[in-house]
Amino acid sequence: MLSARNIQRLARRFSTDAKQFPANKQRFIPSTGTYPKGFFAGGSHCGVKKAGKPDLAMLLSDRPTIASAVFTTNQFSAAPVQYDRGLLNSTRQAGSADVRVVVVNSGCANAVTGKQGLKDALAMAEAGGERARQMDGQAAKALVMSTGVIGQQLPIDKICQGISRQELGSSHDDWMKAAVAHMTTDTFPKLLSRTHGNIRMAGITKGAGMIHPNMATLLGTVCTDAAVTQPLLDKALAYAVARSFNAISIDGDTSTNDTIAVLANGASNSELISDADSKEFIEFQQQLAEFMAELAPLVVRDGEGATKFITVEVNGARTFGDAKQVAAAIATSALVKTAFYGQDANWGRILCAVGYAGVPLDTTQVDMRIVPGDGSTPLELVKAGEPQLPVDEGRAAEILKLEDVKVQVELNLGSEMARMYTCDLSHDYVSINADYRS
């Protein structure tokens, strides 16, 4: 176990300076933030990772929260997922709101770890609750999350010791420490904060591989000082996830540990949101969706080996579900993703994905273009189902050299739209995942 002296030494090495991260990612790392009232954050090294790398994060509310979460659909769900599901089910049945803590370790997923894994998830939760009680004297329950290698047992004694000594604060640097401690193959910490009227939100997420929209697609927590009832927080989260964390894909793999949680503590002293038809709820739901739609794409920007950030936008669908289905077919196509990596304007691959998405189409009405991220003139590729020939290969090459590119498809069947966020598939993705455990 680490001595107090060693913990202090490692803490001094734990920098949140953005300059330590890749130069092309630093623009996504906030230098300041406005954080929700009543929440505290922190991160540290407890001994899961080697060389003193941050591997333990904690978030704490100074009062009870309404908590909601969505989880992976992978049947080999990790021990933390199983524990959190049970905890939230029990709090709903009891009408309790004493979930105040989120504890996250990186470096070990605690997945496919049998009965011992469940015991370790419980031990993490109990240690988190006890750390909160030591700080403010209030009883607390904790959600737990783990990320890293599957099939290895947690060094639970080190983790519990780290939790017992975890320092927490409300400054931007404290939140940054928590974000850095989430990282595994991530190349930069993913932290976002926003203010909407008198309500504040802050979110931390992590992910770079095993990202696919089949529930939550990674780890993430959003904290808000809004006051909202349990049913309406559940409703708002489902709406927001469908338009954010379930609208991203990197490699088509749905992890065993995927979890997105939202904690609302009401510390803004705003009026309780309790009517689903009210203006206040509609605004809150939209604010949460917009916030999470800014947070989730940070994961795609850090896709393992990625060189392109690709937005797929499908307009003119009969329903949101139809638009999402077409966008997902494009975003998850390996042929489309490799074409973008090779900067090859092989638009037939995109149109092919539209056609096999499983949504009824009038192919004589479909338009398609690629839109450069720098705001310059788009390149029209298909109009009313007809190819726009000859393709301006020079203009296509200019657009495909850019880091940000949008694929825009117009179905001309209705008024609904959806977006997916994805990246290209490169040689480096194979290299990173070929020796992940080393």
Mind explaining what this structure looks like?
α3 links the parallel β3 and β4 (141-149). Residues 1-12 have low confidence and may be disordered. The two termini are 23 Å apart. Strands 1, 2, 3, 4, 5, 6, 7 and 9 form an 8-stranded mixed β-sheet that branches. Strands 8-15-10-14-11-12-13 form a 7-stranded mixed β-sheet. It is 34% helix and 24% strand. The chain is built from 13 helices and 15 strands. The chain is globular and about 70 Å long. The longest helix is centred in the first third of the chain and has 23 residues, at 114-136. α3 packs parallel to α4 (156-164), α6 (230-242) packs across α7 (279-295) and α9 (320-331) packs across α11. The protein has 2 domains: 4-297, L-amino peptidase D-ALA esterase/amidase, CATH 3.60.70; 309-434, Roll (Ubiquitin-like (UB roll)). By secondary structure, the protein is α+β, with helices and mostly antiparallel strands.
